[in-house]
Protein backbone atom coordinates (compact mmCIF):
# COMPACT_ATOMS: atom_id res chain seq x y z
CA UNK A 1 0.00 0.00 0.00
CA UNK A 2 0.99 3.66 -0.12
CA UNK A 3 3.18 5.70 2.22
CA UNK A 4 3.68 9.25 0.92
CA UNK A 5 2.84 8.03 -2.56
CA UNK A 6 5.32 5.14 -2.48
CA UNK A 7 4.21 1.50 -2.31
CA UNK A 8 5.46 -0.55 0.63
CA UNK A 9 4.99 -4.01 1.99
CA UNK A 10 5.29 -4.62 5.71
CA UNK A 11 8.10 -7.14 5.16
CA UNK A 12 10.35 -7.60 2.15
CA UNK A 13 13.74 -9.17 1.35
CA UNK A 14 16.78 -6.96 1.71
CA UNK A 15 19.01 -6.66 -1.38
CA UNK A 16 21.71 -8.57 0.51
CA UNK A 17 19.66 -11.76 0.02
CA UNK A 18 20.10 -12.97 3.60
CA UNK A 19 17.85 -10.61 5.60
CA UNK A 20 14.53 -8.78 5.45
CA UNK A 21 13.33 -5.27 6.14
CA UNK A 22 10.18 -4.68 8.20
CA UNK A 23 8.20 -1.59 9.08
CA UNK A 24 8.75 -0.89 12.78
CA UNK A 25 5.13 -0.58 13.92
CA UNK A 26 6.11 0.53 17.43
CA UNK A 27 7.22 3.83 15.87
CA UNK A 28 3.95 4.52 14.05
CA UNK A 29 2.07 6.76 13.51
CA UNK A 30 4.57 9.53 14.26
CA UNK A 31 7.67 8.04 12.63
CA UNK A 32 8.07 5.71 9.66
CA UNK A 33 11.16 3.56 10.12
CA UNK A 34 12.40 0.27 8.70
CA UNK A 35 14.20 -2.35 10.76
CA UNK A 36 16.48 -5.04 9.37
CA UNK A 37 16.00 -8.60 10.63
CA UNK A 38 18.75 -11.13 10.04
CA UNK A 39 18.78 -13.54 13.00
CA UNK A 40 16.53 -15.89 14.92
CA UNK A 41 16.74 -13.70 18.02
CA UNK A 42 15.97 -10.59 16.00
CA UNK A 43 12.88 -12.11 14.40
CA UNK A 44 11.63 -13.48 17.72
CA UNK A 45 12.16 -10.12 19.42
CA UNK A 46 10.34 -8.28 16.62
CA UNK A 47 7.31 -10.55 17.05
CA UNK A 48 7.34 -10.48 20.84
CA UNK A 49 7.69 -6.67 21.11
CA UNK A 50 5.18 -6.04 18.30
CA UNK A 51 7.61 -4.40 15.91
CA UNK A 52 5.60 -6.65 13.61
CA UNK A 53 2.08 -7.71 14.55
CA UNK A 54 -1.11 -9.07 13.03
CA UNK A 55 -1.62 -12.80 12.62
CA UNK A 56 -0.63 -13.16 8.93
CA UNK A 57 2.43 -10.91 9.27
CA UNK A 58 3.56 -12.74 12.41
CA UNK A 59 3.44 -15.99 10.45
CA UNK A 60 5.56 -14.64 7.59
CA UNK A 61 8.08 -13.10 10.00
CA UNK A 62 8.36 -16.41 11.86
CA UNK A 63 9.00 -18.20 8.56
CA UNK A 64 11.88 -15.85 7.81
CA UNK A 65 13.09 -16.23 11.41
CA UNK A 66 13.32 -19.97 10.88
CA UNK A 67 15.40 -19.35 7.76
CA UNK A 68 17.77 -17.08 9.70
CA UNK A 69 18.14 -19.82 12.30
CA UNK A 70 19.35 -22.18 9.59
CA UNK A 71 22.27 -19.84 8.90
CA UNK A 72 23.23 -20.07 12.57
CA UNK A 73 22.64 -23.80 13.17
CA UNK A 74 21.14 -25.94 10.42
CA UNK A 75 21.17 -29.16 12.43
CA UNK A 76 17.95 -30.94 13.42
CA UNK A 77 18.54 -29.76 16.99
CA UNK A 78 18.93 -26.20 15.73
CA UNK A 79 15.72 -26.51 13.75
CA UNK A 80 13.79 -27.82 16.76
CA UNK A 81 15.19 -25.04 18.96
CA UNK A 82 14.23 -22.34 16.46
CA UNK A 83 10.68 -23.66 16.05
CA UNK A 84 10.19 -23.72 19.82
CA UNK A 85 11.67 -20.24 20.31
CA UNK A 86 9.50 -18.64 17.65
CA UNK A 87 6.34 -20.52 18.66
CA UNK A 88 6.67 -19.17 22.21
CA UNK A 89 6.62 -15.49 21.16
CA UNK A 90 2.84 -15.06 20.71
CA UNK A 91 0.48 -17.90 21.74
CA UNK A 92 -2.88 -16.84 20.28
CA UNK A 93 -2.40 -16.30 16.54
CA UNK A 94 -2.45 -19.68 14.79
CA UNK A 95 -0.74 -18.35 11.63
CA UNK A 96 2.58 -18.37 13.47
CA UNK A 97 2.43 -22.08 14.24
CA UNK A 98 1.06 -22.85 10.78
CA UNK A 99 3.97 -21.08 9.08
CA UNK A 100 6.54 -22.76 11.33
CA UNK A 101 5.09 -26.20 10.66
CA UNK A 102 5.07 -25.58 6.93
CA UNK A 103 8.66 -24.37 6.70
CA UNK A 104 10.01 -26.96 9.14
CA UNK A 105 8.22 -29.72 7.25
CA UNK A 106 10.00 -28.61 4.08
CA UNK A 107 13.37 -28.76 5.80
CA UNK A 108 13.27 -32.17 7.48
CA UNK A 109 14.38 -34.06 4.38
CA UNK A 110 16.86 -31.42 3.20
CA UNK A 111 20.57 -31.57 3.92
CA UNK A 112 21.82 -28.96 6.38
CA UNK A 113 23.82 -26.87 3.84
CA UNK A 114 20.66 -26.39 1.75
CA UNK A 115 18.31 -25.49 4.58
CA UNK A 116 18.78 -21.73 4.68
CA UNK A 117 18.12 -21.25 0.96
CA UNK A 118 15.12 -23.60 1.07
CA UNK A 119 13.62 -21.89 4.13
CA UNK A 120 14.20 -18.36 2.81
CA UNK A 121 12.51 -19.25 -0.47
CA UNK A 122 9.59 -20.91 1.32
CA UNK A 123 9.11 -17.83 3.51
CA UNK A 124 8.95 -15.75 0.35
CA UNK A 125 6.28 -18.02 -1.09
CA UNK A 126 4.23 -17.72 2.10
CA UNK A 127 4.48 -13.93 1.81
CA UNK A 128 3.30 -13.96 -1.80
CA UNK A 129 0.42 -16.29 -0.92
CA UNK A 130 -0.62 -13.90 1.83
CA UNK A 131 -0.75 -10.98 -0.60
CA UNK A 132 -2.85 -13.02 -3.04
CA UNK A 133 -5.17 -14.22 -0.26
CA UNK A 134 -5.74 -10.72 1.07
CA UNK A 135 -6.44 -9.32 -2.38
CA UNK A 136 -8.95 -12.14 -2.93
CA UNK A 137 -10.58 -11.34 0.43
CA UNK A 138 -10.97 -7.78 -0.79
CA UNK A 139 -12.55 -8.89 -4.04
CA UNK A 140 -15.02 -11.17 -2.25
CA UNK A 141 -15.89 -8.65 0.45
CA UNK A 142 -16.31 -5.55 -1.70
CA UNK A 143 -19.74 -6.79 -2.80
CA UNK A 144 -21.05 -6.27 0.73
CA UNK A 145 -20.16 -2.59 0.52
CA UNK A 146 -21.40 -2.22 -3.05
CA UNK A 147 -24.80 -3.71 -2.18
CA UNK A 148 -25.36 -1.27 0.69
CA UNK A 149 -24.23 1.69 -1.43
CA UNK A 150 -26.59 0.71 -4.23
CA UNK A 151 -29.50 0.09 -1.88
CA UNK A 152 -29.12 3.28 0.18
CA UNK A 153 -27.63 5.66 -2.36
CA UNK A 154 -25.25 7.10 0.23
CA UNK A 155 -21.84 6.62 1.81
CA UNK A 156 -21.41 3.24 3.52
CA UNK A 157 -20.19 3.45 7.13
CA UNK A 158 -18.03 0.45 8.07
CA UNK A 159 -16.91 -0.04 11.67
CA UNK A 160 -13.70 -1.95 12.34
CA UNK A 161 -11.90 -2.89 15.55
CA UNK A 162 -8.13 -3.08 16.03
CA UNK A 163 -5.90 -3.11 12.94
CA UNK A 164 -6.55 -5.72 10.28
CA UNK A 165 -5.23 -3.68 7.39
CA UNK A 166 -2.06 -4.07 5.37
CA UNK A 167 0.06 -3.42 8.45
CA UNK A 168 -1.27 -6.68 9.92
CA UNK A 169 -0.45 -8.66 6.78
CA UNK A 170 2.13 -8.40 4.01
CA UNK A 171 -0.15 -6.17 1.90
CA UNK A 172 -3.83 -5.27 1.45
CA UNK A 173 -4.98 -6.56 4.85
CA UNK A 174 -7.96 -8.69 5.80
CA UNK A 175 -10.78 -6.57 7.26
CA UNK A 176 -9.61 -3.49 5.37
CA UNK A 177 -9.05 -5.25 2.03
CA UNK A 178 -12.73 -4.91 0.96
CA UNK A 179 -12.58 -1.25 1.98
CA UNK A 180 -9.45 -0.59 -0.12
CA UNK A 181 -10.99 -2.37 -3.11
CA UNK A 182 -14.20 -0.35 -2.66
CA UNK A 183 -12.28 2.92 -2.37
CA UNK A 184 -10.24 2.21 -5.50
CA UNK A 185 -13.45 1.32 -7.36
CA UNK A 186 -14.93 4.71 -6.46
CA UNK A 187 -17.55 3.38 -4.06
CA UNK A 188 -18.51 5.86 -1.31
CA UNK A 189 -17.11 4.33 1.89
CA UNK A 190 -16.27 5.77 5.30
CA UNK A 191 -14.52 3.83 8.06
CA UNK A 192 -15.34 4.17 11.75
CA UNK A 193 -12.08 3.31 13.50
CA UNK A 194 -12.18 2.06 17.10
CA UNK A 195 -9.16 3.40 19.00
CA UNK A 196 -8.61 -0.15 20.33
CA UNK A 197 -7.13 0.21 23.78
CA UNK A 198 -4.78 -0.54 25.36
CA UNK A 199 -2.26 -0.36 22.50
CA UNK A 200 -4.41 1.89 20.31
CA UNK A 201 -3.84 -0.09 17.13
CA UNK A 202 -6.92 1.50 15.58
CA UNK A 203 -6.05 5.10 16.37
CA UNK A 204 -2.35 4.64 15.63
CA UNK A 205 -2.20 2.05 12.84
CA UNK A 206 -5.56 1.76 11.07
CA UNK A 207 -5.93 5.53 10.96
CA UNK A 208 -2.32 5.85 9.74
CA UNK A 209 -2.80 3.55 6.79
CA UNK A 210 -6.23 4.93 5.87
CA UNK A 211 -4.71 8.40 5.92
CA UNK A 212 -1.89 7.24 3.69
CA UNK A 213 -4.31 5.72 1.20
CA UNK A 214 -6.80 8.58 1.26
CA UNK A 215 -9.76 6.62 2.66
CA UNK A 216 -12.31 8.75 4.60
CA UNK A 217 -12.45 7.71 8.24
CA UNK A 218 -13.22 8.83 11.79
CA UNK A 219 -11.51 7.59 14.97
CA UNK A 220 -13.86 6.96 17.89
CA UNK A 221 -13.45 5.81 21.49
CA UNK A 222 -13.84 2.05 21.92
CA UNK A 223 -17.11 2.41 23.82
CA UNK A 224 -18.78 4.58 21.17
CA UNK A 225 -19.62 1.76 18.77
CA UNK A 226 -22.87 0.66 20.37
CA UNK A 227 -24.15 4.24 20.51
CA UNK A 228 -23.36 4.78 16.83
CA UNK A 229 -25.15 1.56 15.91
CA UNK A 230 -28.24 2.56 17.86
CA UNK A 231 -28.41 5.83 15.92
CA UNK A 232 -28.05 4.32 12.46
CA UNK A 233 -24.48 5.49 11.90
CA UNK A 234 -23.03 2.03 11.23
CA UNK A 235 -24.05 -0.01 8.17
CA UNK A 236 -21.60 -2.87 8.44
CA UNK A 237 -18.89 -4.23 10.77
CA UNK A 238 -15.79 -5.97 9.42
CA UNK A 239 -13.02 -7.17 11.72
CA UNK A 240 -10.06 -9.51 11.41
CA UNK A 241 -9.15 -12.69 13.26
CA UNK A 242 -6.09 -14.18 14.96
CA UNK A 243 -7.60 -17.66 15.16
CA UNK A 244 -10.89 -19.06 13.90
CA UNK A 245 -12.14 -22.48 14.96
CA UNK A 246 -13.55 -25.15 12.67
CA UNK A 247 -16.99 -24.27 14.09
CA UNK A 248 -16.73 -20.57 13.18
CA UNK A 249 -15.82 -19.06 16.56
CA UNK A 250 -13.54 -16.07 16.05
CA UNK A 251 -10.70 -14.84 18.25
CA UNK A 252 -9.72 -11.21 17.70
CA UNK A 253 -8.47 -8.21 19.66
CA UNK A 254 -10.07 -7.70 23.06
CA UNK A 255 -13.34 -5.78 22.67
CA UNK A 256 -14.44 -7.50 19.46
CA UNK A 257 -17.01 -9.62 21.30
CA UNK A 258 -18.70 -6.50 22.68
CA UNK A 259 -18.96 -5.03 19.17
CA UNK A 260 -20.52 -8.26 17.92
CA UNK A 261 -23.10 -8.18 20.72
CA UNK A 262 -24.00 -4.58 19.89
CA UNK A 263 -24.24 -5.37 16.19
CA UNK A 264 -26.48 -8.37 16.88
CA UNK A 265 -28.78 -6.27 19.07
CA UNK A 266 -29.09 -3.61 16.37
CA UNK A 267 -29.43 -5.92 13.37
CA UNK A 268 -26.14 -4.82 11.80
CA UNK A 269 -24.17 -7.35 9.72
CA UNK A 270 -20.97 -8.43 11.48
CA UNK A 271 -18.37 -10.01 9.19
CA UNK A 272 -14.92 -11.39 9.93
CA UNK A 273 -12.21 -11.41 7.25
CA UNK A 274 -9.45 -14.01 7.38
CA UNK A 275 -7.16 -16.13 5.19
CA UNK A 276 -7.06 -19.93 5.30
CA UNK A 277 -3.95 -19.87 7.50
CA UNK A 278 -6.01 -18.36 10.36
CA UNK A 279 -8.39 -21.35 10.57
CA UNK A 280 -7.52 -23.82 13.32
CA UNK A 281 -9.24 -27.01 12.17
CA UNK A 282 -8.32 -28.79 15.42
CA UNK A 283 -10.53 -26.63 17.64
CA UNK A 284 -14.32 -26.54 18.05
CA UNK A 285 -15.01 -24.38 21.11
CA UNK A 286 -13.20 -21.07 20.82
CA UNK A 287 -14.05 -19.80 24.30
CA UNK A 288 -12.82 -22.98 25.99
CA UNK A 289 -9.91 -23.92 23.73
CA UNK A 290 -8.19 -20.85 22.27
CA UNK A 291 -5.27 -19.68 24.45
CA UNK A 292 -5.61 -15.98 25.27
CA UNK A 293 -2.37 -14.03 25.56
CA UNK A 294 -1.99 -12.00 28.78
CA UNK A 295 0.23 -9.02 28.03
CA UNK A 296 2.24 -6.65 30.21
CA UNK A 297 0.14 -4.60 32.65
CA UNK A 298 2.15 -1.54 31.64
CA UNK A 299 0.24 -1.42 28.36
CA UNK A 300 -2.82 -0.53 30.45
CA UNK A 301 -1.22 1.61 33.14
CA UNK A 302 0.84 3.86 30.86
CA UNK A 303 0.35 5.79 27.62
CA UNK A 304 2.99 7.22 25.31
CA UNK A 305 2.21 10.15 23.05
CA UNK A 306 3.60 13.17 21.26
CA UNK A 307 3.81 16.49 23.07
CA UNK A 308 3.00 19.91 21.64
CA UNK A 309 6.72 20.63 21.16
CA UNK A 310 7.18 17.45 19.09
CA UNK A 311 8.79 15.48 21.89
CA UNK A 312 7.42 12.26 23.37
CA UNK A 313 6.43 11.34 26.89
CA UNK A 314 5.10 8.28 28.70
CA UNK A 315 2.58 8.98 31.43
CA UNK A 316 0.86 6.85 34.06
CA UNK A 317 -2.94 6.81 33.82
CA UNK A 318 -3.98 4.21 36.43
CA UNK A 319 -4.11 4.64 40.19
CA UNK A 320 -0.66 3.54 41.46
CA UNK A 321 -0.69 0.13 43.09
CA UNK A 322 -3.98 -1.05 41.58
CA UNK A 323 -3.85 -4.59 40.17
CA UNK A 324 -4.19 -4.71 36.38
CA UNK A 325 -5.23 -7.46 33.98
CA UNK A 326 -4.46 -7.24 30.28
CA UNK A 327 -6.00 -10.06 28.18
CA UNK A 328 -5.09 -9.27 24.59
CA UNK A 329 -7.92 -11.11 22.82
CA UNK A 330 -11.48 -12.33 23.23
CA UNK A 331 -13.62 -14.87 21.39
CA UNK A 332 -16.81 -14.09 19.46
CA UNK A 333 -19.05 -17.16 19.07
CA UNK A 334 -19.94 -18.03 15.50
CA UNK A 335 -23.64 -17.46 16.22
CA UNK A 336 -22.90 -13.70 16.39
CA UNK A 337 -20.96 -13.64 13.10
CA UNK A 338 -22.92 -12.97 9.90
CA UNK A 339 -20.23 -14.48 7.70
CA UNK A 340 -16.54 -15.22 7.24
CA UNK A 341 -14.84 -13.49 4.31
CA UNK A 342 -12.02 -15.71 3.05
CA UNK A 343 -9.84 -15.93 -0.05
CA UNK A 344 -12.29 -18.53 -1.41
CA UNK A 345 -15.48 -16.58 -0.77
CA UNK A 346 -17.90 -15.82 2.05
CA UNK A 347 -18.94 -18.65 4.35
CA UNK A 348 -21.43 -19.06 7.15
CA UNK A 349 -19.65 -19.01 10.51
CA UNK A 350 -20.17 -22.66 11.27
CA UNK A 351 -18.65 -26.02 10.42
CA UNK A 352 -20.70 -26.67 7.29
CA UNK A 353 -20.13 -23.14 6.05
CA UNK A 354 -16.36 -23.50 6.31
CA UNK A 355 -16.32 -27.01 4.86
CA UNK A 356 -18.31 -25.72 1.90
CA UNK A 357 -15.35 -23.50 1.03
CA UNK A 358 -12.68 -25.99 2.09
CA UNK A 359 -14.09 -29.40 1.09
CA UNK A 360 -10.64 -30.96 1.30
CA UNK A 361 -10.94 -30.63 5.08
CA UNK A 362 -14.17 -32.63 5.25
CA UNK A 363 -12.53 -36.02 5.70
CA UNK A 364 -10.29 -34.67 8.48
CA UNK A 365 -13.31 -33.06 10.15
UniProtKB/TrEMBL annotation:
Q: Which pathway features in its UniProt record?
A: Amino-acid biosynthesis; L-methionine biosynthesis via salvage pathway; L-methionine from S-methyl-5-thio-alpha-D-ribose 1-phosphate: step 1/6
Record-linked InterPro entries: IF-2B-related, IF-M1Pi, IF_2B-like_C, Initiation_fac_2B_a/b/d, M1Pi_N, NagB/RpiA_transferase-like
State its Enzyme Commission number(s): 5.3.1.23
Task: Return the annotated site residues (Transition state stabilizer).
Answer: 162
Q: Which reaction does it catalyse?
A: 5-(methylsulfanyl)-alpha-D-ribose 1-phosphate = 5-(methylsulfanyl)-D-ribulose 1-phosphate
> Pfam families recorded for this chain?
IF-2B
| Parts of the chain that traverse the membrane | none
Similarity comment text for this entry: Belongs to the EIF-2B alpha/beta/delta subunits family. MtnA subfamily.
Identify which residues the record assigns to the active site: 242 (proton donor)
Keywords from the UniProt entry: Amino-acid biosynthesis, Isomerase, Methionine biosynthesis
Claim: Ubl conjugation is one of the keywords in the record: no
**Record protein name field:** Methylthioribose-1-phosphate isomerase
Job description of the protein:
Catalyzes the interconversion of methylthioribose-1-phosphate (MTR-1-P) into methylthioribulose-1-phosphate (MTRu-1-P).
Q: Name one GO molecular function term.
A: isomerase activity
| Keyword Hydrolase carried by entry | no
Enzyme class (EC, first level): isomerase
Instruction: Cite the binding residues for substrate.
Output: 53-55, 90, 201, 252-253
The highest taxon in the source lineage is Bacteria
Amino acid sequence: MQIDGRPYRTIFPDPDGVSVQVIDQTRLPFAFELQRLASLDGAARAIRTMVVRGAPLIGVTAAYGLAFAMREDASNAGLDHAVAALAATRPTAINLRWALDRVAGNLRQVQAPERFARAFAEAGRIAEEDVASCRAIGNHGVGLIAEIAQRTGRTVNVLTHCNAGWLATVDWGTALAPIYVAHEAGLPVHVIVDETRPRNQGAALTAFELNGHGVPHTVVADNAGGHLMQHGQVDLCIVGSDRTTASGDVCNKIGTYLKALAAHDNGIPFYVALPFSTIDWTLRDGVAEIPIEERDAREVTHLTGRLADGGFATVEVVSPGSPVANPAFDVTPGRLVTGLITERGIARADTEGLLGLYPERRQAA
